[in-house]
Amino acid sequence: MKKSYLVVVSLVVMMLVLGIAFQASAAKGCFDQGKGGKKQHLKMMAQKLKLTPDQEKEILKIKQKFERATLSLRHQMQTKKLALKTLWQEKELNRSAIEKTTKELVRVKIKLTEKRREMREQMKKVLTPEQLEIFEKMPHQGKHGKKGKSFRHCGSKCMAH
Prior knowledge:
There is one protein chain. The chain is an all-alpha fold and 161 residues long. The protein has one domain. Helix content is 75%, strand content 0%. It is built from 7 helices and no strands. Helix 1 runs antiparallel to helix 4 and helix 3 runs antiparallel to helix 5. The relative contact order is 0.14.
């Protein structure tokens, strides 16, 4: 009983610390990171698409709006991942809890993907037809170089800064 209580308290403390760190990083917007950060991604995108200063500002606004709008979802995703990791580390696996948490995590990821698609559609409206053609051909690599995962939250990189 005492061990279970300690595990629960530890989990709550970890979630609070992660939540605070996550909110702090989101407040910065993760746009002021150094090499490899979202600011760097925006510069690369601006160069490849030859964006005007006005277009660059508009795309930055769209991306910042996305970051603010998805803060809660990204926080939920981190919390679900942490809970899932804890469930898998238990001596006796609670399969129903693992399944439930996994399904909840998938739902959050789907919502994030939908929001990301909405953001991309808004960005497309800012581009000229020539820029749009280049944009559609860009690999849009995101976290860990995975194609199709563009504009993902910077995760632990933000929390470290």
